[in-house]
Amino acid sequence: MDGSTLPAVAEELLREIRKAFQETSQVPDDLLLGLKFIFGPSAVPALDLVDQRSVTRLRSPSGRILYQVLGSSGKLYTCYSSCHFCTCPAFGFSVLQKSESLLCKHILAVYLSQALGACQELPVSEEQLTNILLAEEEDEG
């Protein structure tokens, strides 16, 4: 995980969650409270997305990685953990425009599913990955 865009306290919390889960297969209550404290209203919906195994990691033969998260509305959002970006409207509004949140529930779900080993894996061709990226640009423009 490239957490260079997250505050150190958030990175440390995700590390603690990963460590606790590896040791006990659970996330202790104090770390869940920490999640709510640091990530606010995104925390519980993000955990729900992880529980529903809504996060898929797409990997191309060259090693390029992209995440797709099936949102609670049934829409598929593309997340870029490397640059801390999601294509959902909440990210554009709450994170970019208003700076009310560190991230949206979709990116938090990506980080949590990495920490908990809960990503579904989907190998894709370079062409498929490119098409996904191009489709996202068309949606925005």
Structure description:
- It is a single chain.
- This protein is of the alpha+beta class and 141 residues long.
- Helices cover 52% and strands 16% of the residues.
- It has 6 helices and 5 strands; from the N terminus they run αααββββααβα.
- α1 packs across α5 and α3 packs across α5.
- 28% of the residues are buried.
- The model has no long low-confidence stretch (mean pLDDT 88).
Bin the strand percentage: 15-25%
How far from one another are the termini?
A: 29 Å
Oligomeric state of this protein: single chain
Q: Helix-strand pattern, N to C?
A: HHHEEEEHHEH
GO biological process, one term: double-strand break repair via homologous recombination
Keywords: Metal-binding, Zinc, Zinc-finger
GO molecular function, one term: zinc ion binding
Protein name: Zinc finger SWIM-type containing 7
Report a brief summary of the structure.
Residues 77-115 form the SWIM-type domain. The chain is an alpha+beta fold.
